[in-house]
């Protein structure tokens, strides 16, 4: 028992200071108003009836009795306590309540009072209980020590933690309580200072205010009660009040008393762990800077269960979906915080596909439709003036893949668009209505929503906030996690370097930019053909780039002539390979990261066929070691021998000097 309370000892805990502490306690407590001491009747008895006590016991009791006498002297309505002492073996069980979130406090207090529990409380919770008409024992009355340091110290006292941590099945623990004049506490209902809402409030808060909203006493009581859950019920969630009261009444439930207590203890520890995780994240961001890319030496991620899924990626796998409660995700938008207006519950694959569609469509600044199948965009089209036609073009890019896919828009879906989604026939036969798993958009008009609901009972309709830039990306590997910055690059962040004799026109550059935005979201090896703000075809996920190009070319068909091609990584070969295949198909411009030791072959091939080629570039920042970075922000190291470098230098004068095109408001200049 002593080791459980070793650090929870104020100055009055030392026997040599007890006489002075008694006088100090009486003086301070007398100066603080109390609304009533009726609950003290349950914890005191006549000194004549008390068992013999040691000198140390008498000294400890003297402190607490001094507090009682001081408080009693402030009111005429209390009984004479001049001859009273404290008896820890008598009185009803106690429930300690300290809440920031006071939801259903009256229900909790009524239930506990009816079960005969003495309500012990602090500060605002005690005042709320008294205002509601409940008798309350304030913590100061248990400890005979006042709240101090502007509320920083209220419950950090052996009279509180001893009563929580004492094991009832160990006689030495109970004897220790008896020796020190401490009563047991049997129920602890606590939730914590609103740190999360304070630091995420509009406009934020300064550092000192954030620090003052870090709870200390609350987590200490919660952890103590959870550790001793066999004897103490701990509740941190108002949703558990009814179940706890039922358990105390002995009403039967599906789980045993032991399992119930363990579940509440787990919830208590998790509550504290999530709280501490958010505090630690906030402190790290305050230390290194809110916008700094500086991975912490260790980190935790606070997750809360949103949905138990029917199955995982495959029917034989169990699965669940969690929401990330990190500060970095506050008001960050995205599929996890979507409002589902209609349809079947989301599945594991639904979440993956919807996320891919939403991340892609949010990249575009003009009204756009994206169709996704198995996390790959199979159709993309944009239009400033005719979103209905953009939707049709997105589907026509690959109608076979679009059937059963996810449709995403970056603008509001009104009645006209909703009707087109509902009635549009598959381009493959002109008769079959297109079927979709999900429609996701930032907003739906009431009329549009009703029309879409009429398409299918199972169609999932998601209203989703746009995803913000600058968030982090976590990905699990066996035994670890990969952390990286989100890929927020847009064409405005890229210098497109013309490396061929042919310089693209403004329209061709715009096509290349559009293709580049699309290919960014296609699984590697990724190739996209695009023209006039629409995807013509894409090839994805192939082990070699030439096969991806062939697939994209097949889907684009005759429209590939004069189109732009974007590749998510460099072309390792050109002649009789992907680059030459694209050139032979009549494309106008090819955009790629560059970085291959055979880049010159690709340039020579394009020069032969009169095709423009653009290299994408991003200047190195901070610790980035290389200048050339691909469309997925990859670093490429050129492993070129000295002889090859010399050869490149010797022949470089035969080719046109690079031209860097910069884009601003749709214009470009050299």
Automatic annotation (TrEMBL):
InterPro entries: AICAR_Tfase_dup_dom_sf, Cytidine_deaminase-like, MGS-like_dom, MGS-like_dom_sf, PurH-like
Pfam families xref list: AICARFT_IMPCHas (PF01808), MGS (PF02142)
Catalyzed reaction equations: IMP + H2O = 5-formamido-1-(5-phospho-D-ribosyl)imidazole-4-carboxamide; (6R)-10-formyltetrahydrofolate + 5-amino-1-(5-phospho-beta-D-ribosyl)imidazole-4-carboxamide = 5-formamido-1-(5-phospho-D-ribosyl)imidazole-4-carboxamide + (6S)-5,6,7,8-tetrahydrofolate
Keyword Acyltransferase part of the UniProt annotation: no
Matches recorded under SMART domains: AICARFT_IMPCHas, MGS
Keywords: Hydrolase, Multifunctional enzyme, Purine biosynthesis, Transferase
Protein name per the record: MGS-like domain-containing protein
């Amino acid at each position: 028992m002593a080791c459980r309370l070793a650090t929870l000892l104020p100055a009055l805990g030392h026997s040599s200071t007890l006489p002075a502490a008694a006088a100090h306690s009486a003086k301070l407590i007398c100066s603080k108003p109390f609304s009533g001491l009726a609950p003290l009747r349950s914890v005191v008895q006549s000194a004549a009836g008390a068992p013999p006590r040691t000198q140390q016991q008498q000294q400890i009791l003297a402190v607490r009795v001094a507090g009682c006498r001081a408080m009693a002297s402030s009111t005429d309505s209390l009984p004479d306590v001049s001859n009273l002492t404290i008896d820890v073996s008598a009185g009803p069980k106690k429930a300690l309540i300290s809440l920031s979130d006071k939801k259903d406090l009256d229900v909790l207090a009524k239930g506990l009072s009816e079960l005969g529990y003495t309500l012990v409380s602090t500060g605002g919770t005690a005042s709320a209980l008294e205002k509601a008409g409940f008798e309350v024992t304030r913590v100061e009355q248990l400890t005979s020590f006042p709240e101090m340091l502007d509320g920083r110290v209220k419950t950090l006292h052996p009279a509180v933690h001893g009563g929580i941590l004492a094991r009832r099945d160990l006689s030495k623990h109970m004897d220790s309580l008896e020796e020190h004049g401490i009563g047991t506490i049997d129920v602890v209902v606590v939730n914590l200072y609103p740190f999360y809402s304070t630091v995420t409030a509009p406009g934020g808060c300064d550092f000192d205010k954030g620090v003052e909203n870090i709870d200390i006493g609350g987590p200490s009581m919660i952890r103590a009660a959870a550790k001793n859950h066999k004897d103490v019920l701990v509740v941190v969630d108002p949703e558990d009040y009814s179940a706890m009261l039922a358990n105390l009444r002995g009403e039967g439930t599906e789980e045993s008393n032991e399992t119930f207590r363990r579940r509440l203890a787990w919830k208590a520890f998790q509550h504290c762990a999530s709280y501490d995780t958010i505090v630690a994240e906030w402190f790290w961001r305050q230390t290194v800077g809110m916008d700094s890319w500086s991975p912490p030496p260790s980190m935790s991620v606070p997750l809360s269960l949103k949905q138990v899924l029917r199955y995982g990626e495959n029917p034989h796998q169990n699965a669940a979906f969690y929401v990330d409660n990190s500060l970095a995700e506050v008001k960050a938008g995205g599929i996890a915080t979507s409002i589902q207006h209609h349809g079947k519950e989301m599945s594991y694959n639904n979440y993956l596909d919807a996320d891919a569609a939403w991340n892609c469509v949010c990249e575009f600044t003009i009204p756009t439709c994206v169709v996704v199948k198995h996390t790959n965009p199979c159709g993309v089209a944009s239009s400033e003036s005719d979103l209905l036609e953009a939707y049709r073009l997105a589907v026509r890019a690959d109608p076979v893949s679009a059937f059963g896919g996810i449709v995403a828009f970056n603008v509001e879906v009104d009645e006209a668009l909703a009707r087109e989604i509902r009635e549009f026939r598959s381009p493959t036969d002109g008769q079959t209505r297109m079927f979709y798993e999900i429609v996701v958009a930032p907003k739906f008009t009431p009329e549009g929503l009703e029309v879409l609901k009429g398409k299918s009972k199972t169609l999932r309709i998601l209203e989703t906030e746009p995803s913000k830039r600058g968030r982090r990306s976590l990905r699990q590997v066996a035994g670890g996690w990969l952390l990286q910055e989100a890929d927020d690059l847009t064409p405005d962040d890229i210098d497109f370097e013309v490396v061929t004799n042919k310089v693209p026109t403004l329209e061709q550059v715009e096509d290349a930019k559009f293709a580049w935005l699309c290919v960014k979201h296609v699984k590697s090896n990724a190739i996209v053909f695009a023209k006039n703000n629409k995807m013509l075809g894409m090839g994805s996920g192939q082990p070699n780039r030439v096969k991806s190009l062939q697939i994209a070319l097949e889907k684009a068909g005759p429209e590939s002539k004069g189109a732009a091609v974007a590749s998510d990584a460099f072309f390792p070969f050109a002649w009789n390979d992907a680059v030459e295949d694209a050139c032979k198909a009549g494309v106008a411009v090819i955009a790629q990261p560059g970085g291959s030791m055979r880049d010159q072959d690709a340039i020579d091939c394009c020069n032969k066929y009169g095709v423009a080629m653009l290299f994408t570039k991003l200047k190195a920042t901070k610790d980035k070691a290389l200048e050339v970075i691909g469309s997925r922000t990859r670093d490429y190291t050129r492993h070129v021998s000295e002889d090859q470098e010399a050869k490149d230098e010797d022949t470089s004068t035969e080719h046109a000097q690079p031209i860097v095109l910069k884009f601003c408001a749709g214009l470009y200049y050299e």
